[in-house]
């Protein structure tokens, strides 16, 4: 169970308090609105099997349409200046955010020794620690699922949420959201389940991709199953892999229909490993994108600007995984998936839409793996 420190806010760690492999969110270690590419020098190099701790900063509260002043923005909601992350303040004041760039602040890249294109990067999510006790849900610029209706007034609606009960750990915490703007004393309370919306690897060449659309490289995949205890597998695109993280969430419903979910900063501790190309193909088949494994589920993905095609890609990857991992006949795998597996919408708001499936591992306990 994740615990919280005496102070409810996790500012950047001092060097003497930081783990050996720690990546804070600074000018040198972050990019705002773009993803790292092969030409970007790593901010840290680690060996396979090593653990890295990343600080992440949420874009909510620092964007231009919110005043680009998180102390003022969160202060208007009763948050003291001392409880606003110093790295968020610095990035908002001095960071470069180009017109047309994505909103996300991305920490990395981290090189993994020996990783080559065609390999799989294995990223185990060990720990996700809230860095604040509040977050924001925004609908902006008509880019959600219902653009003709929301936001109601103006280009941006930002809903502030307190998180209560973090002193008892994440499982005890509840985010609060007012039933109506005029009745904050009657809140809706919902559980949190922190995860990183952006986990990816550097793309080939020297052009940085916008941070919004996900792809084969991972990036803004927004799968809410990527919580503590889950392992994500990413196809390596460039030497060293170039792992990066960002877009931290406290909670998200499948679909993320308003454009953002409950956006809030996290400290992420990840263990990385490399599966060489030949072994990766033998073990998992020839997949066309990232996939994950939780203690309960295999989670193949599919991504496309057309949601129908995203679901179809997810289905194909699901069949490929079952055939490779368990030796299942493809036609029988197709039938099994239809009868026993939920296919879900990851998000519909990131230009490239995402789907993922939940294949129960318990159904295969009698199968030799």
TrEMBL record:
InterPro entries: FmdA_AmdA (IPR004304). It comes from the Bacteria. GO terms for molecular function: hydrolase activity, acting on carbon-nitrogen (but not peptide) bonds, in linear amides. This is Acetamidase. It comes from Amycolatopsis rhizosphaerae.
